[in-house]
Design goal:
With 418 residues, the protein is mainly α. The protein has 16 helices and two strands.
């Protein structure tokens, strides 16, 4: 199809984010979480250009329209508004809650990893090494994980894994906060760091790339939020560690990607599919999200809450896709986390939800005399996690991710009332 007009519209949308990034740093020029989010949106737009102009995907998309891009931009800015509020507020110190209860989620996460060490070592030998040495191992691991997902949600098969995943975002937040303290327990921090990194590597053994990327973006959100409060020495160690870990994790992810798409003939090469993964969300949202032919009535974004209220709520994404197969698009394609809410509740209701929550969050974030409380930072952290994790894909707190959302809510309530 003729993509000239489409490229112009996509260029305008990209320009919105470039200008936003410049304005964001006009007065307060320090790099923080909001900087990372806006930079990522610009990168996704770049890949959208590539996939939009790839002849192999020529029949995949419809022509673009202006209003969906305006709507998406406004919603993404609303979601990022707590981080923007913090960026514009001069903060020099975090008020320490001096609560030992803050360590409880961390101890539970460490214990859950320790319990899983035997299976982790077994999977490392059978899966991780195979992915690096066998060209078909990545695809086989992915297909096995895909088959297992069809029965997910009906029962708890691995309680330590469930607890660990539920607390992961909380432990990352607490870990980076502890790094800002003067009285650091180095041994505990090392154990907590290892448990966070191991949790990032575990999905690779199952051929899952999305979970790895989610963990990486969660760590980035925590680091970017607290980096201005961390000493230069520790910040240098974090950067070096981040580069090493990224390189280690990137190798099997690349191997899995090549394995998955290596058998597809008469089409684009592996790099084409990578560009499509990264750049598809903006285009699919524009094409279908605002007029998908119906809504999912919250069955994805608040799945576990609805399952408590209604027995006919789908337990996993395969059941949900079957239930809503008449929709023009579902979670089998990326539409950003905004698209998830729009598909669940419709454009107007999703807009009201975003305005209501983020208006409340902005009111709560009020640093006084350059001092901010930890529960206020948790709201900003949540906004960064949602924006970073879901800017390319979907709302990562959907389905069983509701447990992580619940854990963060409990942590917020404790910190605010402690």
């Amino acid at each position: 199809m003729d993509t000239t007009d489409d490229n112009i519209l996509l260029a305008l949308y990209t320009l919105f984010w470039v200008i936003s990034f410049i304005v964001y740093h006009y007065r307060n020029r320090h790099i923080d979480g909001g900087s990372a989010v806006m930079a990522s949106y610009i990168v996704y737009c770049f890949f959208s250009f590539i996939t939009l102009n790839d002849e192999f995907f020529d029949d995949t998309y419809e022509h673009l329209s202006l209003f969906p891009f305006i709507y998406l931009y406004v919603m993404l800015m609303l979601a990022l508004s707590p981080a923007i509020k913090l960026h514009r507020s001069p903060v020099i110190k975090i008020k320490d809650p001096h609560s030992k209860a803050l360590l409880i989620p961390c101890y539970i996460a460490i214990l859950c990893i320790c319990v899983q060490i035997p299976s982790i070592l077994s999977n490392f030998n059978s899966n991780f090494v195979s992915i690096l040495t066998d060209s078909d191992a990545g695809k086989d691991a992915y297909l096995e994980a895909f088959e297992n997902s069809k029965s997910a949600g009906s029962a708890i098969r691995n309680l330590p894994a469930v607890l660990y995943n539920m607390l992961y975002d909380c432990t990352v937040f607490i870990f980076f906060f502890l790094l800002t303290r003067k009285d650091k327990n180095i041994n505990f921090l090392v154990l907590l760091f290892l448990s966070i990194i191991i949790g990032m590597i575990i999905p690779v053994m199952d051929g899952r790339r999305g979970s790895v990327i989610k963990c990486g973006l969660t760590i980035l959100a925590g680091y970017m939020l607290f980096r201005q409060f961390i000493s230069i020495k520790i910040d240098r160690i974090i950067k070096i560690s981040g580069i090493i870990i990224t390189a280690i994790v990137a190798i099997p992810i690349i191997a899995i990607t090549i394995s998955r798409f290596s058998d597809r003939k008469n089409g684009t090469d592996t790099s084409g599919y990578v560009y499509w993964y990264i750049g598809q969300a903006n285009i699919y949202f524009n094409n279908y999200a605002l007029d998908a032919g119906g809504t999912r009535n919250g069955d994805r974004t608040f799945n576990m809450v609805k399952r408590l209220l209604s027995s006919d709520t789908p337990k996993n994404y395969t059941e949900r896709r079957e239930k809503y197969k008449k929709l023009k698009i579902d979670d089998d394609f990326y539409t950003t986390f905004v698209g998830d809410f729009v598909l669940d509740f419709g454009p107007l209701s999703a807009f009201i939800i975003f305005v209501a929550f983020n208006s409340w969050a902005i009111i709560q974030i009020r640093p006084r005399c350059g001092i901010i409380k930890l529960h206020q930072l948790l709201l900003v952290y949540f906004a960064l996690c949602v924006s970073l994790q879901g800017g390319m894909t979907l709302f990562m707190y959907s389905d069983t991710g509701n447990l992580s959302l619940g854990a963060m809510m409990l942590l917020y309530i404790w910190l605010r009332n402690h």
